[in-house]
Design goal:
The structure holds two protein chains of two kinds.
Chain A: H1 4-31, H2 36-44, E1 56-57, E2 60-62
Antiparallel strand pairs in A: 1-2
Chain B: H1 13-36, H2 42-60, E1 61-62, H3 74-99, H4 108-129, H5 136-162, H6 171-206
Helix pairs in contact in B: 1-3, 1-4, 2-3, 3-4, 3-5, 4-5, 5-6
Classes of the chains: A mainly alpha, B mainly alpha.
């Protein structure tokens, strides 16, 4: 049984999450699929693409230049 | 996230220095305020070390969501350590990140300001949210989202004020592009809010004394 106060918080949080997710998905659809560096480059007017990809494991990559 | 992912040379030298100077003033103020208090709490220092390590590690891992982004953990830093220690933590994390090629050195000052806003806002909102709801999960989640949202605003403001060298876009076009970027970032903020909410709830269950923001 969720207390009234807890429920209020969860509702507020839930509304924020849903609205933010919808806005994010809309923006993602408008801008396309690209990495964060390409997003910044595109946003400010730099050329995009050509960045070397690091080693990838199940879609996860490491930022920066690997030391090892 | 709102961490500015632009290369060195994007800002003019003037603005690189301006943001660095402001960041150093903030760091100096944090050090002064910490030093003026009683001797540092060893437990707090230990927590700071752990969150600094976790934040640095998380910063470097690009998650395959929305094309590839990384989480920050800056709001969690604020919730667990407060804005003073949090300022020092984000300084260390940003310096080490630049050292391995994650962002330009010239952008470190600006990124410290972005992360400072995230840490501070999250801490303030977390302290204030207990008047709104007793749900710790919601308190942490909402404060995380608030911090990251403000971080995006600060990021946009810094870039607009500084301007970008070597591009022909108007400020309005840059604002539009950055707004779309910020909107995508808020999708990542949703994920980070949920994670932070779960982490804080778990900490409260096993070690409630650790939560800085809950201190009266």
């Amino acid at each position: 049984m969720i207390a009234t106060g807890d429920l209020k918080g969860i509702i507020i949080f839930g509304v924020i999450l849903v609205v933010a997710t919808l806005i994010a998905l809309a923006a993602y659809g408008m801008t396309g699929d690209m990495g964060i560096e390409d997003r910044y480059n595109q946003a400010v007017g730099f050329p995009t693409g050509g960045e070397e990809g690091g080693e990838e494991v199940s879609g996860f990559t490491i930022e920066g230049n690997l030391v090892m | 996230m709102a961490h500015i992912h632009l290369e060195d040379g994007s800002f003019t030298l003037l603005w690189v220095l301006v943001w660095w100077i402001i960041a150093l003033v903030l760091i100096g103020a944090a050090l002064f305020l910490l030093k003026s208090r009683n001797k540092p709490d060893p437990k707090k220092i230990t927590i700071a070390a752990f969150v600094a390590t976790a934040a640095f590690a998380i910063f470097q891992v690009q998650v395959p969501i929305f094309g590839g982004v990384h989480l920050n953990l800056t709001p969690l830093i604020g919730i667990l350590t407060g804005p003073l220690l949090g300022t020092l933590i984000i300084f260390v994390v940003n310096i080490l990140s630049a050292a391995i090629g994650h962002g330009g050195w010239g952008l470190v000052g600006a990124n410290i300001l972005v992360n400072f806003s995230e840490v501070t806002v999250a801490w303030f909102v977390f302290k204030g949210m207990k008047k709104v709801t007793p749900s710790l999960f919601s308190q942490a989640g909402i404060s995380t989202f608030s911090g990251l949202f403000v971080g995006n605003i600060v990021m946009i403001g810094i870039i607009l004020v500084s301007g970008i060298q070597g591009v022909h876009q108007t400020p309005v076009e840059i604002l539009t592009g950055l707004s779309l970027l910020a909107a995508v970032n808020m999708g990542v903020a949703v994920i980070e809010s949920l994670i932070t909410g779960l982490v804080v709830t778990y900490i409260a269950r096993i070690r409630p004394d650790i939560l800085e923001g809950d201190k009266k």
